[in-house]
Design brief:
Length: 191
């Protein structure tokens, strides 16, 4: 089983856990940022992280794993591989999250929603809506890093490899902006 200290070490050693001044996708600012692509480039780490998630849902009769592009694709694939079920992903079309490429969710299908980082939960909620509108049953949500400190609740079983209470601020309340020493950067996939 993956211990918290080992996971933190993996994220730190790969440069996935960063410090500075960051503009988040939500528009908020933070002094720490988690760039999971940095850790997911290493298959051995990806396998360990996905194994942790898969072990938490082994008894939940998962029939499909889905994640939002870009952050959820790799981890959804590896969790699905370990659960021996298909993996699909959603992506944005005209600014809206959509199921494309011929992917489908069957009515009643038990679906696990996975994402790399949970901040506000916006992308996860969009994927949950797609699953439910397709007639699927959201059996759970899993993330590599829950940076909400466990505050986000989706009303289903929820697991995170790491739960971190990383502060973030509205732009007008950002102490780093007030100091003016470090410019805000947007390192994410939508930056």
């Amino acid at each position: 089983m993956l211990e918290r200290e080992e996971a933190v070490e993996m994220f730190t050693n790969t440069g996935a856990l960063m410090e500075g001044h960051f503009l988040l996708t939500s528009g908020r600012h933070s002094d720490r940022y988690v760039q999971c692509a940095r850790i997911l480039q290493y298959p051995n780490y990806t396998e360990k992280l996905a194994s942790y998630i898969a072990s938490k849902f082994q008894e939940d009769n998962i029939e499909l794993v889905i994640g939002p592009a870009m952050g959820g694709i790799i981890i959804a694939y590896e969790v699905a591989r370990q659960l021996n079920v298909p993996a699909v992903f959603t992506e944005r079309k005209d600014g809206e999250m959509a199921l494309r490429r011929g992917f489908e969710i069957k009515p009643g299908q038990r679906v696990l929603v996975v994402e790399d980082v949970l901040t506000t939960g916006g992308s996860i909620r969009e994927v949950i809506d797609i699953v439910e509108k397709s007639g699927g049953c959201v059996a759970g949500v899993a993330v590599l890093v829950d940076r909400s400190g466990g505050k986000a609740d989706f009303g289903v079983k929820q697991e995170a490899v790491l739960t971190m209470d990383i502060q973030s601020w509205e732009a007008e309340d950002c102490p780093l902006c007030r100091e003016g020493k470090i410019p805000a950067i947007k390192p994410g996939s939508r930056g």
